[in-house]
UniProtKB/TrEMBL annotation:
Keywords linked to the UniProt accession: Cell shape
Annotated family: Belongs to the MreC family.
Species this protein is from: Exiguobacterium indicum
NCBIfam families: mreC (TIGR00219)
Keyword Aminoacyl-tRNA synthetase in annotation: no
Entry superkingdom: Bacteria
Record bears the keyword Phosphoprotein: no
Function in brief: Involved in formation and maintenance of cell shape.
Record's protein name: Cell shape-determining protein MreC
Length: 294
């Protein structure tokens, strides 16, 4: 009996130990596996997070992109503004440099022409309809300006005064095609002999002056300089008119005609000199001033 009780205690102990091992195993297995309702909750939460996270992320990316575009736009506008300022300043600098050079050249001209008084002036008016014919300058009779006085830039002759009021004057340009617009001119031939003729007429297509009434025996060639002759009393002698580009016989064969590229730019100029000189009896030019517009 005693032996049976001892065996029973041993059996109970073994069974208890075995049960404990089984319970521990079940407990450990439960930690690595989820119940179906736990998995459902986790899956549902994950889907919800994805549903909300996707549009929120898209909105956030869109807002970020808009900010970046706005920043780029602002920077672009700033750069454009600076570029416009730079372009404007560059134009001003070029204008100032051109004006500075023009004034320096005018000073050189003033020093080279000693026999006549030079009256400085600025071009203040020019109409589109008469662009090639007339300009208005800002000095007149109060400064001693009279009709038939020559007007020059630093590069050469551009025209003459045809009307003078108290404070302004009207200048007829050499590019005016009026028949009354003529200048006694001269050029040295290949032997150094002076050849005389008249500048009359302007070719609007080629932008060349016509040097006419040249004797047939004159030996002129391309590149020779044409200047005022001083005959006629309007223009002092020696003012540069331009250079010969071509010489040929006129349409009647009675004389030669040379085409002259003007030394002065009739299109763009700002500062001029009026050469103060009393008019004498004309030789190859019109004797009276006045408005010659047709």
């Amino acid at each position: 009996m005693k032996r049976f009780l001892n065996n029973r205690k041993l059996l109970i102990t073994l069974l208890s130990f075995l049960l404990l091992v089984i319970l521990i195993g079940i407990s450990l297995q439960g930690r690595n596996q989820s119940h179906w309702y736990q998995s459902f909750v986790r899956d549902t939460a994950g889907v919800g997070q994805r549903l909300f996270a996707t549009p929120i992320g898209w909105i956030d990316d869109t807002v970020t992109s808009i900010r970046e575009v706005r920043d780029v736009y602002k920077e672009n506008e700033h750069l454009k503004s600076r570029l416009n300022d730079y372009a404007g300043n560059a134009v001003k600098v070029r204008d100032l440099e051109r004006e500075n050079k023009e004034l320096k050249d005018m000073l050189d001209l003033n020093g080279s022409i000693r026999d006549y008084k030079l009256l400085p002036a600025e071009m203040i008016g020019r109409t589109a309809s008469e662009w090639q014919r007339f300009v208005t300058i800002n000095i007149g009779e109060q400064k001693g300006v009279k009709a038939n006085m020559a007007v020059v830039t630093a590069d050469g002759l551009i025209g003459r005064v045809i009307q003078a009021s108290a404070y302004t004057s009207l200048v007829q340009l050499m590019s005016d095609t009026s028949r009354t617009n003529n200048v006694s001119a001269t050029a040295d031939d290949t032997k150094g002999k002076g050849v005389f003729g008249t500048i009359e007429g302007f070719d609007e297509e080629t932008k060349l002056l016509k040097f006419t009434k040249i004797p047939n025996d004159a030996k002129l060639k391309k590149g020779q300089t044409v200047t005022t002759s001083g005959l006629g009393g309007k223009y002092p002698s020696g003012i540069v008119i331009g250079k010969i580009t071509e010489v040929k016989s006129d349409q009647y064969g009675a004389s030669k005609i040379a085409y002259v590229k003007p030394a002065a730019d009739f299109e763009q100029f700002g500062h001029v000199f009026v050469i103060e000189r009393e008019a004498k009896e004309p030789f190859a030019e019109t004797d009276k001033g006045g408005d010659t517009r047709e």
